[in-house]
Amino acid sequence: AQKITQTQPGMFVQEKEAVTLDCTYDTSDPSYGLFWYKQPSSGEMIFLIYQGSYDQQNATEGRYSLNFQKARKSANLVISASQLGDSAMYFCAMRDIKAAGNKLTFGGGTRVLVKP
Amino acid sequence: DTGVSQDPRHKITKRGQNVTFRCDPISEHNRLYWYRQTLGQGPEFLTYFQNEAQLEKSRLLSDRFSAERPKGSFSTLEIQRTEQGDSAMYLCASSLLSAPSNEQFFGPGTRLTVL
After folding, report:
1. Which residue, of B7, B13, B16, B46, has the fewest CB within 10 Å?
2. How far is B87 from chain A (nearest CA, A)?
3. Are strands B10-13 and B110-114 parallel, antiparallel or unpaired?
4. Tens digits of per-residue pLDDT, A55-70?
């Protein structure tokens, strides 16, 4: 069974600084995908970034980058130049590519609060 | 706006009542998912459809829960004889089977409160 662990329940970060959100995963399947979603207080899950298990390069999307360390089974999200609008819950999720439907397994989330 | 929409956004009901939620996915997306999220937790998978076929159901989906996607477009999730433990955010997501990363796009959710 797949498992996602986010060990940081909450973090404060100063505006304009970078923050790293930890995510470790456990799977026995060599083919999988890793996602990060942002959930503001409004409730909607917003897709941020994706990393495939066979991707050679770490994924980047604007201010978001994913530090993928396959041997350590970690997929940490780095948010650079934090903005007040980055205050939200952040969820790491994994998709088993071989599983029917590619359902997502989520971690427990990390709450980020950006201070001005 | 062509994102995923859900209706209603909030629902308050009394224990024992039936409730039904609706999800309208992104129009060309052939996969549709339902997740449940309780306070302070990540979403948990409930069920998914590929077109109109319901292909997988989680063991979280008790007999009181039923989901349909009659024409492969919108979907409904019904909870019969609601219990206080059903109080949660119900999230719908859709994806395109042929997309490389098959990322799921989520709706705003329906927050259910059972009194």
Report:
1. B16
2. 15
3. parallel
4. 989 999 999 999 999 9
